[in-house]
Design a protein that fits this description.
By secondary structure, the chain is of the alpha+beta class. It contains 21 helices and 11 strands. β2 and β3 form a beta hairpin. It is globular.
Length: 515
């Protein structure tokens, strides 16, 4: 079956004439010429990007997911390919209710009716890895139940193995393919899909995001851990209107401009306050509460893909954005070098010139038309020319930023993202390097200081004693080195004197013999 699937994939790639992606240095390879002759009857008038999308849809849900992941790698893909791959839809027929019932019974070692008081047999959403049903617990809570698709792990592992084989061939047959690093793309895809195969990981990520927004600025469903398992996740049912349904939102009295600004603030809060962000914030995963005390607030759904940033990444991202806004291109270049995004020996002037070439044309546009995400993408692409591989978490951030920008402008076409983001970034930078940072550090370290205050005199005395001992040892070492140096000097003089005496002896013998 493995080889049958492999030959099916090759057949689909040939049918859609994707051999165009295996062109080396703009010149047809012998394989390309052979395929052109053999498939002279297959004209394939569509553009290459369209043919790639159609081929992935033909190959099934795992390849669709791979294409969706590829669409985020705009630092590597041609623009036409990346744009076309964003059209891929994860539309998969639902699996049978009997299988759902069997999975739940196996997960909890009890009949479904024992676990849930009510269970809607028709799924409300069906994707390649899992599907979602509404249900009700015996305690009365309305819940959403996510169930892993049966046998999906084996299918994913099989297709990833085949993707690795295809990636190997792409690297062998095409210099352009080697530049795209298909093996690294497959590895990245494998990491994401492996996480999605364990719903307890998604549940944990959902719970973490919920704790981060305990102030309910962003509504996150609660996880019911007693009803969650590796193959089943039970969470609070959320009631909201899809964010794309702007007509319904307006009819409910929602201020779309305010909603758009709130979305930008929530994104930057996740990135810079928490360093933990929802990395799949496309409109299908975002709703808006239109009733009750939480009216007008965003609802987040689907927590399979989350991103995280280190404190260093957070600092340098904020610094890059602010330097860009202030047209301080040298600081953008220095920040890239100091962060390690480009090699330390990179010429600052050359990098500054490259950054200026990217940023100056952007500032010819009105601020509301400047794209955060595309600016960050341009900087990443420029960084690659200077010999750096952008880290996966930054790629996820850039993808999410593009989603947020698209969402914000869908709600309010005139939104000025800089107006929303700049005060937030300036305040955050002040907290990192100003007096607020000192207070924050002192507050963080105060419990440790109080805990060890009683030990301070003893530790200080021990430190001074160690320093004294080290001083004595250093003095002994210095004395020994001085003695050794003196002995070495005496040996040099003694050796020189012996050599001179020997030479004089030879000279006297030579003179006696000649006389």
């Amino acid at each position: 079956m493995h080889w049958l699937r492999f030959f099916h994939i090759i057949g689909v790639l040939i049918w859609y004439r994707l051999d165009i992606f295996f062109v080396r240095d703009q010149q047809p390879t012998w394989i390309h010429r052979l395929l052109s002759i053999a498939l002279f009857w297959r004209h394939a008038p569509e553009q290459r990007a369209v043919r790639l999308r159609l081929a992935l849809e033909n190959l099934g849900p795992i390849f669709v997911k791979f294409g969706q992941m590829l669409s985020t790698r705009r630092d590597l893909l041609p623009t036409d390919v990346a744009d076309e791959l964003t059209k891929l839809q994860d539309q998969v027929p639902p699996f049978a209710y009997a299988q759902v019932e069997s999975i739940i019974q196996e997960a909890f070692a009890a009949p479904l009716s024992t676990v849930y008081a009510e269970f809607n047999t028709t799924p409300v959403a069906s994707a390649s890895v899992a599907q979602v049903h509404f249900a009700k617990l015996h305690s009365g809570e309305q819940v959403a139940v996510k169930v892993l698709r049966p046998g999906i792990a084996a299918i994913i592992h099989r297709d990833i193995a085949l993707l690795r084989t295809l990636a190997w061939w792409v690297k062998k047959l095409s210099s352009e393919g080697r530049r795209l690093k298909p093996d690294e793309m497959v590895d990245e895809f494998a990491r994401h899909t492996e996480h999605e195969l364990d719903l307890t990981l998604e549940a944990a990520q959902c719970a973490q995001l919920g704790r981060n927004f305990s102030d309910r600025r962003l509504l996150v469903p609660s996880v019911y851990w007693d009803y969650s398992h590796q193959h089943v996740m039970t969470m609070q049912r959320m009631y909201g209107t899809p964010v794309r349904d702007t007509a319904a939102l307006k009819a409910s009295g929602i201020n779309l401009t305010q909603l758009a600004h709130e979305g930008v603030e929530i994104f930057f809060t996740q990135v810079f306050r928490d360093g933990f962000f929802h990395a799949d914030m496309h409109p299908g995963n975002i709703q808006v509460a239109t009733e009750g005390p939480d009216k007008g607030k965003f609802i987040a759904l689907d927590f399979g893909i989350m991103g995280s940033l280190s404190a260093t990444d957070q600092y340098y991202l904020a610094r890059n954005f602010l330097a860009f806004f202030n047209r301080d291109y040298r600081d953008v270049a220095v920040a890239h070098i100091e962060s390690g995004w480009v090699p330390a020996d990179t010429n600052v002037e050359a990098l500054e010139t490259a950054v200026r070439a990217i940023c100056e044309p952007i500032f010819e546009k009105p601020l509301k038309d400047i794209s955060f995400g595309r600016t960050l993408l341009s900087l990443f692409q420029m960084s690659r020319r200077f010999g750096v591989n952008i880290q996966p978490q930054l790629i996820m951030l850039q993808k999410t930023l593009l989603n947020i920008e698209g969402l914000g402008r869908e709600l309010d076409p005139n939104i000025d993202l800089w107006l929303s983001a700049k005060p937030f970034l300036k305040r955050w930078m002040s907290e990192q390097i100003g007096w607020r940072s000192l207070l924050k550090s002192a507050k963080r370290e105060l419990p440790y200081i109080l805990t060890h205050a009683a030990d301070m005199p003893r530790l200080l005395e021990q430190y001074l004693r160690n320093q004294t001992d080290l001083g004595k040892q250093q003095h002994r070492i210095d004395t020994l080195l001085t003695t050794q140096q003196q002995q070495a000097n005496w040996q040099k003089w003694a050796t020189a004197a012996i050599i001179v005496l020997v030479l004089l002896q030879f000279a006297s013998v030579f003179l006696l013999l000649n006389h």
